[in-house]
Write a structure and sequence with these properties.
single chain, three-stranded antiparallel sheet, mainly alpha, 147 residues, 60% helix
Length: 147
């Protein structure tokens, strides 16, 4: 218990930092399993100056996802890595979409204030109508006659 407090004091954290023994007991897994997850890159706990692993609340959420995938869905470690990478990419794409929507919203507000109708009319380029579908001559039907 004293080491846990010392480790928390060294990292400047308070609540939400847990040593490997606490995490393994809480989730009913062996500490070597947690070390394996770290070696495989599935978990990235912080370290103290004394090299003690400290798991944050985010690490525990990640661990819960990993345990759900392995225990409940039977996914192996390679599959978990792929799933977690896809989740990270999806979260990044969601952030980018949110930024784009905010940008478009801001631009719409700005252009509405600046008289967007006039700018829209000036931006249009008038092109003569074109025939999109061309009429094809009578198609050639292959002969079914045998010689």
């Amino acid at each position: 218990m004293v080491r846990a407090r010392q480790a928390r004091a060294k990292t400047g954290g308070g609540d939400g930092l847990y040593m490997i023994s606490t995490v393994s007991q809480k989730y009913g897994i062996h500490p070597q399993t947690l070390r394996l997850y770290e070696r495989e890159g599935l978990l990235k706990p912080s370290r103290t100056d004394g090299n003690t692993r400290l798991y944050s609340d985010e690490d525990l959420q990640q661990l819960e996802v990993i345990l759900n995938l392995t225990r409940d869905l039977g996914v192996n470690l390679a599959g978990i890595e792929i799933i977690l990478n896809m989740r990270r990419k999806m979260e990044q794409m969601q952030r980018e979409v949110n930024e784009f929507v905010a940008y478009v919203r801001d631009e719409l507000v700005r252009t509405n204030q600046e008289g967007w109708q006039e700018r829209f009319q000036q931006a249009l380029v008038r092109l003569p109508p074109t025939q999109i579908v061309r009429r094809v001559a009578d198609p050639v039907v292959p002969s079914t006659r045998q010689e």
